Amino acid sequence: MSEIHSGGCQCGAIRFRMEGQPKDVSVCHCRMCQKAFGAYYAPLVNVGTAGVTWTRGEPKRFASSNFVQRGFCETCGTPLTYEAPDGLSLSAGSFDEPARLPPTIQFGIECRLPFVDGIPALPARATLDDLDDAPFLPDIVSRQHPDHDTAEWPPERPA
Ligand SMILES: [Zn+2]
Ligand SMILES: [Zn+2]
């Protein structure tokens, strides 16, 4: 039986399904990926021969170069794709279960930010350790799409 991975953007307007084994899972340190993800590096699942279906909506695309398009949700801004002549990659963090797709290689290391390797050694706190500084935390109502497919989104909210 083929493995199935689902995912989508933060607001839920766009959902996808990947069927089969990806070619590789990577982090890319290149400057274009840093900018496109607003992050120190981009985690990417190169789908290879696995099948990808957009099960709700479709990304809007920006041609970040003459060869590459980058797809994102135009409603919430989640980065979703890296589309190059040699194939399609999906942003690894947008999968419902990113822990099932651990990275095995790094790309673009000439742009790797010098402090990235030191991050695991930084002081570490859990979200609810910060209640004194952020007393609203227990009252947060998430509008993020849940980590599974849904029949309808957004759900009806009480008026
Ligand atoms: Zn969205
Ligand atoms: Zn890159």
TrEMBL record:
Q: Which domain of life is it from?
A: Bacteria
Basic and acidic residues bias located where?
142-159
By its UniProt entry, which PROSITE patterns does this protein fall under?
Answer: CENP_V_GFA
Q: Per the record, which residues fall in region Disordered?
A: 138-159
Return the InterPro entries for the record.
CENP-V/GFA, Mss4-like_sf
Tell me which positions the record assigns to the signal sequence. Answer: none
| Family of this protein | Belongs to the Gfa family.
What name has this protein been given in UniProt? Answer: GFA family protein
The organism encoding this protein is Rhizobium straminoryzae
The organism's taxonomic lineage, starting at the top: Bacteria, Pseudomonadati, Pseudomonadota, Alphaproteobacteria, Hyphomicrobiales
